[in-house]
Specification:
By secondary structure, the chain is α/β, with parallel strands linked by helices. Among the domains are: 84 residues, 2-Layer Sandwich (Gyrase A, domain 2); 95 residues, no CATH class. The strands form four sheets. The protein has a four-stranded antiparallel sheet with strand order 1-2-4-3. A four-stranded parallel sheet has the order 6-5-10-11, with helices on both faces. It is globular.
């Protein structure tokens, strides 16, 4: 289904052409003066220079050509040469009726050339609990994945676990000190290793920080941990078995925490999965003349002539032959290309890593790890800050565990629901969990990803203003009206959205018709905040219409039925949008 702006634009373009002007001047846009008109075209201002006449002479002719077109209620030429356009109420109603015929997509076409897109949006380290620093990657990445899926692409999310660095050696070293008799440390053992892990997730989460603290004070201990890391990475059987246990226990806990956030991954791969690809990758880089030794390390130059600042070489191996994050990320690209042949890979990471990913992307391209047409995209996000403007911390000044943050907001939401409504505790807590998730996700996603933002629990959990709970409250209000109507009567078979009867009804209809254009833009710009901006405007437009219109008291049966059809379309649009943001609406609040 064509976007409303394209339909308007095609009429304006034809009017310019009919009067002898180039079609490039017929671009229609949303009005920046909604008090004057709904859409506008400023092409006459630019065309005046080419056609050597006053702009209004052009706009007057174009306006005359458009007058009488059933698409428009009015077309005005305004000096010095603006075209002000208002859609006819009947045309707008027809457009919405076509949207309503497609309840699963509301007329939003899937892309003509679907892509396979991999998205890297997790990055937690195993053996460590998720903390608030993991929130933005998970929430933004999940939404980008859902928007891409809605638009018809094959989206493959990979958590990309940190499971190969020094933290593994630290855990193994600490475990060896505590439980030296475990079979994993017996050099003479050659049997099968136990299926059950020798630790719980709680023990594992205590072991790592203890080991990390020791390594900072005890050089011998740190040396032992580095040696354990080296032996793990070079295939020592007992350590490989311990790694499997660490992964099994950690991933189960990570899955539980991500599930509470409404976040999922198609792949649970880690840095360790890229290791088998490193030797051949390094050898090929050397053989092709890209990699060379600099100060003992193996590097690839990635600077370009157009660079305005220094871009250091991409280090592939350290002087002792050990791999780095660069090595692992490049090898990960190798296996992704081998197994999935993605058209695009998106990395949802802290924006402070932009230089690092510039090096990795350039190295991957220069050395032929990706096809020339494969897109590598860096989606950098800003910092989540507290009210003091500094990175979000606990009251004690530490980094807050993500599950504690979610739990505290669930509780805050439950108290608000319990204070305002008579509700059974079980239902109240279930509803609170749904609404709290909207508060967290909408609070984050309503900001442009690259910008820092203030995580304000009080504001995010409010039922008023630009918040997730406000959006959900609007959806629940619509559901309540629909339920009340259906309890009283059946919708007439010939019921349909009618031409607007009021300014507020038309304003709601104008917001609804932007749906497919907005979804397309949100995907193309990897911008979930555009979905948030749309549903906030749509919710506001609905609430204005609701407060000005006696929907249930309307005496004309067909007019009332038209209102109900319009409400149902509004509900569908809001619910499709929040699904792409990663949360849902309860039946009542």
């Amino acid at each position: 289904m064509e976007k409303i702006l394209d339909l308007i634009g095609s009429k304006v373009v034809k009017a310019f052409q009919a009067n002898g002007y180039d079609e490039k001047y017929g671009k229609a846009t949303l009005s920046n003066r909604p008090d004057l008109c709904e859409y506008q075209c400023n092409g006459a201002m630019a065309a005046a220079k080419e056609y050597k006449c006053a702009p209004f002479m052009i706009s007057d002719k174009v306006a005359d050509s458009l007058k009488g077109n059933p698409m428009f209620e009015s077309v005005d030429s305004v000096k010095p040469g603006f075209l002000n356009l208002k859609l006819s109420a009947e045309y707008l109603a027809q457009y919405l009726r076509r949207m309503a015929e497609d309840p699963t997509r509301l007329g939003c076409d899937k892309c003509e050339n679907p892509k396979t897109i991999m998205i890297d949006y997790g990055g937690p380290n195993v053996a460590k609990p998720l903390h608030v620093g993991h929130l933005r990657s998970a929430i933004i990445g999940e939404s980008v994945k859902r928007i891409g899926t809605f638009m018809g692409h094959t989206m493959i999310g990979d958590v990309h676990l940190g499971d190969w660095g020094l933290q593994m050696g630290l855990i193994i070293t600490e475990l060896k000190e505590r439980k030296p008799d475990l079979v994993y440390f017996d050099e003479t053992y050659s049997g099968e290793y136990p299926q059950e892990a020798p630790f719980t997730i709680g023990e594992l989460e205590e072991i790592y920080p203890a080991a990390s603290a020791k390594s900072k004070e005890d050089d011998a201990y740190k040396e032992a941990a580095m040696q354990a890391t080296f032996e793990l990475q070079h295939g020592k059987g007992g350590y490989q078995a311990l790694l499997k246990h660490i992964l099994d226990v950690s991933v189960s806990d990570l899955k539980r925490n991500y599930e509470n956030l409404g976040v999922s991954f198609e792949l649970w791969k880690g840095e360790s999965d890229a290791q088998p690809y490193i030797p051949d990758m390094v050898e090929k880089m050397k053989k092709d003349g890209y990699a060379y030794i600099s100060e003992g390390a193996l590097v690839v130059d990635v600077k370009e002539d157009t660079d305005t600042k220094e871009i250091p070489p991409c280090m592939i191996l350290k002087s002792d032959g050990a791999s780095l994050y660069n090595t692992t990320d490049l090898a990960t690209i190798v296996w992704r290309m081998k197994d999935y042949q993605p058209d695009e890979i998106i990395y949802v990471v802290d924006k402070r890593q932009e230089l690092y990913f510039t090096q990795v992307f350039r190295c991957a391209r220069k050395t032929g790890l990706v096809k020339p047409e494969t897109e590598l995209k860096f989606l950098g996000f800003g910092t989540m800050n507290g009210k003091d403007g500094k990175p979000f911390k606990t009251r004690e000044g530490g980094v807050m565990r993500l599950e504690y943050l979610v739990s505290s907001i669930n509780e805050e939401m439950y108290q608000k629901i319990a204070d305002n409504h008579t509700v059974e505790e079980e239902e109240g807590r279930k509803t609170a969990k749904v609404v709290a998730l909207s508060a967290i996700k909408y609070g984050d996603l309503s900001n442009q990803a690259s910008k820092d933002y203030i995580f304000d629990v009080e504001r995010f959990t409010s039922f008023e203003g630009n918040t997730g709970p406000y959006i959900l409250y609007t959806i629940v209000r619509i559901k309540s009206i629909l339920k009340k109507y259906r309890a009283q009567k059946e919708l007439p078979q010939n019921a349909k959205i009618l031409a607007a009867h009021s300014h507020s009804e038309k304003a709601l209809m104008l917001e609804l018709c932007k749906f497919n254009g907005m979804m397309e833009a949100a995907f193309q710009e990897t911008a979930p905040h555009k979905v948030c901006a749309y549903i906030y405007d749509l919710a506001n437009a609905f609430n204005h219409f609701y407060h000005e219109t006696k929907i249930m008291a309307e005496q004309d049966e067909m007019v009332q039925a038209g209102y109900i059809c319009l409400l149902d379309l509004t509900r569908q649009a809001l619910e499709l949008c929040i699904e792409t943001l990663g949360f849902e609406a309860p039946e009542r609040m």
